[in-house]
Recover the amino acids of this structure.
């Protein structure tokens, strides 16, 4: 008869035997780079996390449980290519999954494609391009020329600086305190939320087909506003006092709800457009 101690020992052995299976395959690589390296990631499913550090190195940590995929990380000059290769057909989502933790110099160009899962980037400056199908994109304190394209993945961008371009079919877009003179965001059925300062000379174009659009402003902002929803409505803050438009506006025939005018001196241009969604302009 087995004693309790023997049973505990056996159970511990089983745990040790089973635990590594969750991380059956790990890739760890470090590359020396010079100024402003380019890091490209191509993945089908999983979590991609990119953070900056003070080293002139790119470190890649990748984990995947399935032996039906493999991860390669190679260097060509100042470019790092990280790719998940599918070795078999008809894989399940779990078998496709590969997770990445990547550390890069603060000034790095990123090119990330991740069909499903999540993408998170913190404190990286450079040209940043993201393409996803289902994966959400979460960005914090990034800067540069930012391009995000998704099918149904959402974007959450906090303290993003530089030029921002977003295009999605059904993903939601949240821009929190962006520091940008040029923002263009479009989604077909998702929502758009903008809470940030309108910079003098800046252009802010937000469009969707049937989702809500909400914009927050402060008293010190200055912008020329054009808000139009053909079959939806435009809901403005009661305290928002607009002067007649600085330039003559041509009203689109059939538009049931629109709002045109200048707030303060009209230093920035704000265009909000929806087919049937509700457009809200609210004071922060």
């Amino acid at each position: 008869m087995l004693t309790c101690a023997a049973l505990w020992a056996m159970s511990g052995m089983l745990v040790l035997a089973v635990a590594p299976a969750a991380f059956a395959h790990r890739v760890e690589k470090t590359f020396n780079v010079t100024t402003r390296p380019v890091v490209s990631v191509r993945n089908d499913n999983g979590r991609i996390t990119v953070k900056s550090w003070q080293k002139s190195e790119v470190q890649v940590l990748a984990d995947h449980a399935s032996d039906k995929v493999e991860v390669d990380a190679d260097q060509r000059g100042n470019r790092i290519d990280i790719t998940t290769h599918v070795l078999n057909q008809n894989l399940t989502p779990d078998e496709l999954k590969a997770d990445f933790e990547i550390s890069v110099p603060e000034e790095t160009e990123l090119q990330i494609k991740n069909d499903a899962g999540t993408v998170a980037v913190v404190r990286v400056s450079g040209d940043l391009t993201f393409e996803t199908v289902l994966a959400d994109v979460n960005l914090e304190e990034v800067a540069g020329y930012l391009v995000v394209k998704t099918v149904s993945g959402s974007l959450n961008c906090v303290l993003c600086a530089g030029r921002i371009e977003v295009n999605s079919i059904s993903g939601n877009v949240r821009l929190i305190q962006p520091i940008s003179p040029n923002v263009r965001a479009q989604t077909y059925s998702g929502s758009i939320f903008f809470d940030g300062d309108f910079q003098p000379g800046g252009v802010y174009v937000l469009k969707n087909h049937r989702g809500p659009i909400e914009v927050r402003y402060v008293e010190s902002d200055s912008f020329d506003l054009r808000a139009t929803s053909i079959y939806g409505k435009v809901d403005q803050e009661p305290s928002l006092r607009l002067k007649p438009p600085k330039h003559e506006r041509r009203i689109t025939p059939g538009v049931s709800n629109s709002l045109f005018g200048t707030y303060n001196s009209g230093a920035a241009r704000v265009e909000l457009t929806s087919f049937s969604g509700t457009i809200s302009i609210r004071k922060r």
The chain has two helices and 22 strands. The first strand starts at residue 25 and ends at 32. Confidence is low (pLDDT under 50) at residues 1-21. Residues 4-18 form the longest helix (15 residues).
